[in-house]
Structure formats: structure tokens, C-alpha cells
Amino acid sequence: QVQLVESGGGLVQAGGSLRLSCAASGRTFSKSAMGWFRQAPGKEREFVAAIKWSGATYYADSAKGRFTISRDNAKNTVYLQMNSLKPEDTAVYYCAAGPATWGPKDLYGMDYWGKGTLVTVSA
Fold first, then answer.
1. From start to end of the chain, where are the E strands?
2. Which residues contact 24 (CB under 8 A, 6 or more apart)?
3. In angstroms, rounded to a whole number, what is the distance separating the alpha carbons of residues 68 and 53?
4. What is the pLDDT of residues 36-56, one digit of tens each?
């Protein structure tokens, strides 16, 4: 059974940092694309960042320069380092895993989703 479990969310002041982790289990994800998405209250889920098996990374404009996605294939884990956080970053952050063929033309074409971790940024 495939599981994606996020951790690392919490309450942080504006300007602060958080590091989210997503531990994948049930199969190896070394050839999968891994991504982070978020959903703020009353809004649609949106793409944040993704990393392909090759190491190629993709970021939403809102994340560029502040967030960094990385992966440790040996640990089946993907990370999202978030710096210079803003109140508008407040959301539930979801980890996702997709096929090796995933690309930015199909941002939401992921196969597996975690249950999310809440990030709250206070002003």
C-alpha cells in the first residue's frame, strides 16, 4: 500500500523558515516525480514545487527564490525548505508522487497524494 506522510508543518512568524518532509512507502519512488502542492482556506489546491528523478526542479512563481525542493532517494523522502515565509503561504501542504513522465504541462498529473500538513504563518 502506497503511503505519503508529510511532516514539519506548524506555526511560524512571517520571515521565518520551515522544512517539510514527505516520507514515501509501499514502493520505491526513485524514478517518480515528487511534488508539493498547497491549499489555502477557501481556495483551490495549487502547485508549489516538483522534482523529477533526474533532479530537475520546477517552482511556482510564488515559490521561486524562497522555497527549495530536494529528495533523498535512499530514504524515499522529499523535502521542501521554505524561507522568508509570508502570511499568504498559510495553507495545508500536500506531498504528491507522479510518473517518471510527469512534466510542467500537467502539473496535477500525480498518482499519489498525502493527507497534508498545516503551515500557518503569522504576520
1. 3-7, 10-13, 18-25, 33-39, 46-51, 57-59, 67-72, 77-82, 91-98, 112-113, 117-122
2. 2, 3, 4, 34, 76, 77, 78, 95, 97, 112
3. 16
4. 999 999 999 999 999 999 999
Render pLDDT for 73-122 as a digit per residue (tens, 0 to 9).
Answer: 999 999 999 999 999 999 999 999 999 999 989 999 999 999 999 999 99
Cell 502539473, located at residue: 107
Sign of the torsion formed by the C-alpha atoms of 34, 56, 91 and 66: positive
